[in-house]
Amino acid sequence: MVGIPPPAELDSGAARKAGEQTIKETTIMARNATARGIFSSMGETSVQRRQKRGRKVHAAAAANNFSADYFRKFYLNAATRVVTPAEMRSRAGTITSAMRQCQIPVRRILDAGCGIGLLRGPFAEFLPKARYVGLETSEYLCSRFDWQRGSIVDYAAHRPFDLVICYDVLQYLTDADAARAIANFGNLSRAALYVSALTLEDWRENCDRSRTDRAVHLRAGAWYRRRLNRSFRYIGFGIWVRKNVTAILWEMERPDCPGSKRPAPHVRALRRRSQRARD
Predict the structure, then answer these.
(1) Contact 130, 160 (CB under 8 A)
(2) Residues 6+ apart with CB under 8 A from 264
């Protein structure tokens, strides 16, 4: 290296002293840094500490181009896929049953971010008279499946749909675009909406991290609910209905019935330990 004489020219005693001096300086610097961290944390409020813990825990910017490789990995390869056709069929059945229970007729469905169309077949089975429209940003998928090309952020329809599906899309959007997409749900849905997105809580407690895409924006579930509550009310299992739509739920069917709450802290901690063990 430039400026450092060859090893043979170094005096061994001088080198040893220099090394000892470097170690002492490094130790002092480390102690000072530790002290600064301790005193800094002492000055933080409990709210600031909670906010720090609640920050995004991985990839702050999504980098997917949703190419063939992406869908092959997360949807087609049995060893790495995040969801199966059977799971999506069950999801479509749950949504259909909820629509029937609430007596909401479904004639037009928008599947925003429809991917390879795992919901198209099940909805054709459960709601044979409904027209299914797939919306995708992926050029690859639109050319292969003939989906409509566009983004849920600013997509505009000639008339609203009875049911809008948005499954695992919002986490790929920035905060600003995700907020715009949620606001756009109010324009696109005449009656009902199904939303699922990977949240900060899911990342910590629920998902299989070995299979889950990390190139996402993680937000708390409360962030989504605050914005969805402006135009919709929640009826359970990811399903929302517009506030101006009559959907009668018996008292014990309500998702917010008295006594319902999140799992206790020790249960959540147990889930986190189990997830870390799997990782």
Answers:
(1) no
(2) none
- Ordered mean pLDDT values, 10 residues apiece, the chain (279 residues): 41 46 44 42 46 44 63 76 89 97 96 94 98 94 92 96 97 96 98 96 88 88 96 95 88 72 61 65
Question: What is the rounded CA–CA span in Å between residue 171 and residue 178?
Answer: 8
Domain count for the chain: 1
Residue 223, number of CB atoms within 10 A of its CB: 18
**39 belongs to a structural domain:** no
Contact 204, 275 (CB under 8 A): yes
Handedness of CA 231, 223, 236, 117 (dihedral sign): positive
Residue 140 in domain: yes
Domain that residue 94 falls in: 68-278
Let me know if residue 41 belongs to a domain.
Answer: no
Q: Is residue 31 part of a domain?
A: no
